[in-house]
Amino acid sequence: MGIDLELHSARPAHRDWRKSRATLLRGSYEHGDALAELIGSFRRLGVAGRLAGVDPYGDTLMNEQEAAAALREIQEIRESRESEEIRESRDDFGLRQLDALDELAGILEQCAATPGSYVWFAGD
Predict the structure, then answer these.
(1) Bridge partners for 83 per DSSP
(2) Arithmetic mean of pLDDT, 90-115
(3) 116 with 10: CB under 8 angstroms?
(4) Which of 13, 65, 79, 102 has its CA 20 to 30 A from that of 7?
C-alpha cells in the first residue's frame, strides 16, 4: 500500500489519468509506503485535521487553502515530541517517514502558494 503525490495547476481529471497529465506540475512517487504508514498512524491515533482525512486506499484532493492548513499540521508534527523521538532512534522506517513528511511539506507549500492548484493523494 502506498500513496503517490501529485501537484496540479488546476483540479485534475483524477478519473482520467491521461487527461490529468495536462495539469501536472510535480509528482512524488518514491515515499508512498512511508507516507501511507504515517497518515495511517494519524488516523489510528485519532489526530484531527486534513492529513488524517487522507484516504490511503483511494483518491483525496486538496485545494490550496486545504494545503495551507495541512502544512500547518506538518509544522505541528515536526515540533512534537514524537517527531524528535523518530529522529533520535535512527530507525530506518522512521527516517523514511520523515523524508516522506519533508516531501509532502514541499508539495503542500508549493500548492498553498499557487492559486487554483491541487494536491492529489493517489492511494492504493
Answers:
(1) none
(2) 88
(3) yes
(4) 79
For cell 515530541, what's the residue?
A: 81
User: What is the mean predicted confidence (pLDDT) over 2-16?
Assistant: 91
In this structure, are residues 105 and 74 in contact, taking their beta carbons and an 8 Å threshold?
yes
Q: What are all long-range contacts of 35-41, with beta carbons under 8 Å and residues at least 24 apart?
A: 35/2, 35/3, 35/5, 35/97, 35/100, 35/101, 35/103, 35/104, 36/1, 36/2, 36/3, 36/123, 36/124, 37/93, 37/97, 38/97, 38/100, 38/101, 39/3
26 sits in the region (left: phi over 0; alpha: psi -120 to 50; else beta) called: beta
Mean pLDDT, the chain, whole residue set: 88
Please, are residues 101 and 34 in contact by the beta-carbon 8 Å criterion? no
